[in-house]
Amino acid sequence: MIADYASKQWAGLIKHYYSPRWGIFTKMLLNSLHTGIPYSQRDFDYKVFYEVEQPFTFDISIFPTQPEGDTIYLAQEIIKIFFNNYLSIYLSIYLSIYLSISYITRVLSIYLSIYLSIYLSIYLSIYLNVLIFVYLFCSYLSIYLSIYLSIYLSVLVNN
């Protein structure tokens, strides 16, 4: 883990201190991924101390106090690298996510329409069966009542 309190970007720090430290960190992580051996923070701290921090502390190099080079040109080059390399990756990821969401939406709409058609067909089937039952019940009831009334009336008339 790399954690710095009040890290600075003063002359020489990025190139001679932070960059080598990040290099060690990424190499150790990649090595851990390739070998399957868990990452060791203790090994990282030891390696950084002896390969970066101690040499940087005892280095007597004189670093510039003013910015060097054309920072606008460097920023433009970074943007070109980003747009040439990463923008196409970003767009392809975005498009694949968008298309997969569109695909998921289509699949869900198909599923929903099938579900609704099945549900509605079952509902309508039950509703129609109930209607038919009620109709038949009423028909049988009317037949039963007419037979009962005819028998009752014939008994009344004959008495």
UniProtKB/TrEMBL annotation:
Residue ranges constituting the Alpha-N-acetylglucosaminidase C-terminal domain according to the UniProt record: 2-79
Enzyme Commission number: 3.2.1.50
Keyword set, alphabetical order: Glycosidase, Hydrolase, Membrane, Transmembrane, Transmembrane helix
One GO molecular-function entry: alpha-N-acetylglucosaminidase activity
Enzyme class per UniProt: hydrolase
Gene3D superfamilies membership: N-acetyl-b-d-glucoasminidase
Descriptive protein name: NAGLU
PANTHER family per UniProt: ALPHA-N-ACETYLGLUCOSAMINIDASE
Membrane-spanning intervals of the chain: 81-101, 108-126, 132-157
Pfam families, per the entry: NAGLU_C
Domain of life: Eukaryota
